[in-house]
Design brief:
12 helices; 2 domains; 332 residues; Rossmann fold; six-stranded parallel sheet; 20% strand
């Protein structure tokens, strides 16, 4: 199935994860020596837009009486068209790699016919998204960053990675003591608790950046010195914010033990991190000098956590969590 240049043909099917989508796509091309094609399964072109209030009512009536969801019908139609076009133009693939296969579970039978191997990856837990485990039988191999799901369902464990675009300048003195970059969701409650508890013990200069797709009231915008923005930060700006801070903050999603990208990025940036995810203590790079696990208001880092230098992690350990190693594990 390899093309004339001797490269394997890979189809990458994924939700739109902003910069991470292109990072993974380029990584497959480079590290798996592949001719890579992309089908995004979320994004603006896949959003169902109501024409008016009556159109919204029609969809409600259709779901209630006719058991037909116009949103889902629209989504399935677009996905089907994208799949049919790529298979018509490209034929069969050596590998079809899918992140979040639960989003297109009704299409997996059709997709499987067009690839030698179907490879799945889940960087959510089945506790959060139980539909994911229903898709496992379709795959040649299925990876997860959640150890419990790996154990319970016989999957392959593979944590997240750090991207190759990370750069750090040790000659720059960080302006902030602690920084946080995330989307507006239920974690804001935990964020407030953490900032409150830290403020009672330290005078810290914070840089809190929250992506809010919905309108935020003026009252909330003024709380905790948060910078609110409505568009995704450019990747270079995100890296600049992280470099400009002594310590980064990581708040885990509920019902999830898999580690976020932020924790792996600190390995390259050599930044300390405060995280709410206790499972980080089971990893080979864990060092309490670099990583503080926040459990509640009674667990506060020592002052030295903010004043002492980062303890470097051995290069061979850091390398394990590179994008290159992540890609090679998936396509080996």
């Amino acid at each position: 199935m390899n093309n004339a240049a001797g490269k394997r043909k890979v189809l990458f099917i994924t939700p739109d994860y902003m910069d991470y989508t292109s990072i993974i796509l380029d990584g497959i091309t480079e590290y798996a020596n592949a001719e890579t094609h992309l089908i995004p399964i979320t994004g603006k072109k896949l959003r169902f837009v109501y024409r008016d209030g009556f159109h919204r009512f029609q969809n409600f009536f259709s779901k209630l009486i006719l058991n037909k969801n116009r949103k889902k019908l629209f989504y399935d139609k677009v996905i089907t068209e994208r799949l049919e076009l790529i298979f018509k133009e490209q034929g069969h693939f050596d590998d079809i790699f899918i992140i979040r296969p639960d989003l297109i579970k009704d299409h997996l039978h059709f997709i499987k016919k067009h690839g030698k191997r179907l490879i799945g990856y889940f960087w959510d837990s089945f506790s959060r998204i139980p539909e994911g485990k229903e898709t496992i039988p379709w795959f040649t191999k299925f990876f997860s960053f959640e150890r419990k799901d790996v154990k319970d369902h016989g999957l392959l464990f593979l944590p997240n990675f750090y991207p190759p675009d990370l750069t750090t300048d040790k000659n720059i003195q960080p302006q902030f003591d602690i920084s946080y970059i995330a989307s507006a969701d239920d974690r804001l409650i935990i964020l407030e608790r953490i900032l409150d508890s830290l403020s009672h013990h330290f005078e810290l200069k914070t840089n809190i950046n929250i992506l809010a797709t919905k309108t935020i009231s003026p009252k909330n915008k003024n709380e905790k010195n948060i910078t609110w923005f409505t568009d995704v930060l450019p990747r270079k700006e995100t890296i600049r914010i992280m470099n400009d801070s002594k310590v980064l903050l990581d708040i885990a999603q509920p019902k999830q033990e898999g580690l976020s990208f932020r924790i792996f990025e600190t390995l390259v940036l050599e930044k300390k991190i405060i995280t709410t995810n206790p499972s980080v203590s089971t990893y080979d790079f864990y060092n309490p000098n670099n990583i503080f696990i926040w459990q509640n208001e009674n667990t506060i880092p020592a002052k030295e956590f903010f004043t002492t230098p980062y303890s470097p992690v051995p290069d061979d350990v850091v390398k394990k969590y590179s994008l290159e190693n992540w890609i090679q594990r998936i396509f080996e």
